[in-house]
Amino acid sequence: MDGKIYTLPDLNYGYKDLEPHMSEEQLTLHHKKHHQAYVNGANAVFEKLEKARKENANIDMKASLKEFSFHVSGHILHSLFWGNLKPSLKDGRENNPDAKLEKLLISGFGNVERFKKEFSQAAASVEGSGWAVLAFDAMNNKPMIMQIEKHNINVIPSLKVLMVLDVWEHAYYLDYKNERQKFIDAFWNVVDWDGVGGRL
After folding, report:
1. Domain region containing 55
2. Is 135 found in the same domain as 164?
3. What is the SS3 assignment for 160?
4. Which of 19, 51, 134, 170 has the greatest count of CB atoms below 10 A from its CB?
């Protein structure tokens, strides 16, 4: 075990490329420091578990698995977050979902604007640190919105995650201070709808 089970993913864009909606400083700090911390945490717990198994040693499983879940969930959600962002369009065109994704959103919410409104409200109202999530429920063939507090509380099992928005303060504080709603509004300018639709 070399501590590298989990690794920080590269971004598909440069740290300046999401400006003015996310600054280079904010994006760099979020990716290289905060996400890296979850990667490091997950690897450390994994290594601790592996060591205990090899040595047949006792370990506090409840605490270890809770910590492991926190770090791994943070790593997965951040990886999804980077994957559903892209630089905003510069030619004045609207940034919209493709026909397949639009049809799904209409089926679940009535129209795309209603989906954006509900998703934004979910993001704004997460208690403390957390995430707004668009997911697909295969049981009823519908999109659903959920909130995830911290990284791993209130998760609905089996739902396929399509899009996430990180509303921990570390995601926006340098750019927007405590004005979470301004960050949420800016997010819609850099959504990679192709990436979101590709997860269907």
Report:
1. 24-83
2. yes
3. strand
4. 134
Q: List the structure tokens of 77.
A: 């959600």
Q: Which amino acid is at 116?
A: K
The verdict on pTM exceeding 0.85 is: yes
Task: Report the distance separating Cα 36 and Cα 185, nearest Å.
Answer: 26
Q: Do 137 and 169 sit in the same domain of this protein? A: yes
Whether the per-residue pLDDT at 65 is higher than 90: the answer is: yes
- Beta bridge partner(s), residue 137: 142
Pair of tokens at residue 129: 């640190």
DSSP-assigned beta bridge partners for residue 142: 137
The pLDDT, as a whole number, for residue 93 is 65
Based on the fold, state whether residues 76 and 152 are members of the same structural domain: no
Three-state DSSP class for residue 27: helix
> Does 93 map to a domain?
no
DSSP state of 130: E
Nearest to 12 by CA among 84, 97, 106, 115: 84
